[in-house]
């Protein structure tokens, strides 16, 4: 247990830390017309990771299941988990090291973005060199005046100026990510607890351990293929056309609609013969999460904050999302328990049931819908325009224009 906790710590500290870095790097290298699509494409690749993980789990569990037969849990609780089953989850877990090793070399060779190098590290020569290397175009440094560099550092993260300019933006990005992940991770991690009552998955005591692993992996992979991945790529194709704001509002709205469509007639879905409709609607909640706030909460924080604070604010927003994921994971585990003490899982107190839990998740999504109004639309705007870093230049340009168009004083 201690080893797994240590592993999860370094996973979050390392790979989780790449959330703000990858989003910021892509936002600063992309142009404003296609920036959203490029950032969304970076995020969308985790959909293929989910799919690959599910396929690996299916293959491993099917191979072990065919080789090591075992009775169902209700027939033989001890014998339903064969000793060899302990290797199955270890193999699936170790498989995740392969993509990490494959990407390590390229990640270490990736240069800092030119904006960071020039504006934060104050090394315009290195910034020009890095841009030349990435874009294969000769770029010559143009040193900025000292007063311009000083101006760009006029306020920090905890300053009153930052709170005035970007305080509500940061509240919006953190709150939306936090509320989304309460619902999103509850849905993701406890799919088996949702599928079993509607009879898409058999009850756990009617299967052995390897059979349960196979059927849960198959169900999750089907939902990822039909709902999760299409949602990611709809965002890639449409985010620079209809904008982040509309996609996020629409995603929260339709997630609420489909979640309530599952919760209100829940007793209908739990009757035999209706599980297909339930699964289709449940897949749509994943579709609109990814063609919606799960993608846009990753995109927007990498666009709207100043260069020196961009990855920090994105990291704060992402950390708020992980806090929501913790609440959703533990909260749903307890809340979804049956109200009947005789039907709860071993070791858990009675909860409010799956139906009422879906209502609670719907409430979180509705709250996310309203917090979206704190987040500005970033489609088609430069990073400097969004962050306010070019306000000084715009003021000077406007003043010069006013001076040129002003009527001449009388002689």
Automatic annotation (TrEMBL):
Protein localization: Membrane
Q: Where is the composition biased (Acidic residues)?
A: 386-396
Q: Which UniProt keywords apply?
A: Membrane, Phosphate transport, Symport, Transmembrane, Transmembrane helix, Transport
Q: Where is this region: Disordered?
A: 383-411
**One GO cellular component term:** membrane
- Lineage: superkingdom: Eukaryota
Output the GO biological process annotations, alphabetical, semicolon-separated.
phosphate ion transport
Q: Which InterPro entries match?
A: MFS_dom, MFS_sugar_transport-like, MFS_trans_sf
- Which PROSITE patterns does its entry note? MFS
Q: Where, by residue number, does the polypeptide cross the bilayer? A: 38-64, 87-106, 168-186, 222-242, 249-269, 275-292, 313-336, 356-375
From the UniProt record, which GO molecular function terms apply? symporter activity
**Which membrane topology term applies here?**
Multi-pass membrane protein
Pfam families given for it?
A: Sugar_tr
List, for all copies, the residue spans of the domain called Major facilitator superfamily (MFS) profile. 1-380
**Similarity section:** Belongs to the major facilitator superfamily. Phosphate:H(+) symporter (TC 2.A.1.9) family.
In terms of PANTHER family, this protein maps to: SOLUTE CARRIER FAMILY 22 MEMBER
Q: What is this protein called?
A: H(+)/Pi cotransporter
**Source organism of this protein record:** Miscanthus lutarioriparius
């Amino acid at each position: 247990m201690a080893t797994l906790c240590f592993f999860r710590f370094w996973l979050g500290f390392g790979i989780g830390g790449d959330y703000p870095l990858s989003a910021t790097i892509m936002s600063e290298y992309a142009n404003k017309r296609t920036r959203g699509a490029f950032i969304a494409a970076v995020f969308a690749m985790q959909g293929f990771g989910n799919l690959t993980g599910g396929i690996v789990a299916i293959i491993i569990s099917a191979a072990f299941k065919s080789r090591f037969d075992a009775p169902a849990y209700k027939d033989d609780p001890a014998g339903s988990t064969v000793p060899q089953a302990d290797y199955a989850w270890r193999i699936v877990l170790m498989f995740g090291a392969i993509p990490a090793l494959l990407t390590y070399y390229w990640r270490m060779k990736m240069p800092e973005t030119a904006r960071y190098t020039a504006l934060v590290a104050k090394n315009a020569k290195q910034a020009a060199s890095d841009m030349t290397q990435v874009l294969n175009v000769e770029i010559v440094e143009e040193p900025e005046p000292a007063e311009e560099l000083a101006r760009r550092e006029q306020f920090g993260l905890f300053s009153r100026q930052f709170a005035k300019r970007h305080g509500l933006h940061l509240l919006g990005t953190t709150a939306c990510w936090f509320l989304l992940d309460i619902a999103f991770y509850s849905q993701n991690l406890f799919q088996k607890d949702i599928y079993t009552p509607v009879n898409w998955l058999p009850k756990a005591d009617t299967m052995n351990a390897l059979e349960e692993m196979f059927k849960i992996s198959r169900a999750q992979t089907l939902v990822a293929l039909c709902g999760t991945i299409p949602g990611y790529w709809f965002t890639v194709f449409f985010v620079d056309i209809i904008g982040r704001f509309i996609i996020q509002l629409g995603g929260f709205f339709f997630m609420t609609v489909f979640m309530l469509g599952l919760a209100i007639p829940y007793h209908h879905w739990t009757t035999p013969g209706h599980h297909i409709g339930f699964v289709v609607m449940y897949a749509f909640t994943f579709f609109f999460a990814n063609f919606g706030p799960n993608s846009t909460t990753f995109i927007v924080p990498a666009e709207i904050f100043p260069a020196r604070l961009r990855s920090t604010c994105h990291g704060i927003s992402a950390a708020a999302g992980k806090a929501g994921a913790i609440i959703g994971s533990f909260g749903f585990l307890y809340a979804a328990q049956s109200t009947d003490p005789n039907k709860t899982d071993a070791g858990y107190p009675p909860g409010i049931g799956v139906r009422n839990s879906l209502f609670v998740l719907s409430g979180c999504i509705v709250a996310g819908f309203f917090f979206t109004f704190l987040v500005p639309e970033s489609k088609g705007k430069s990073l400097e325009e969004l962050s306010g870093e070019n306000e000084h230049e715009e003021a000077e340009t406007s003043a010069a224009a006013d001076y040129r168009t002003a009527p001449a004083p009388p002689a």
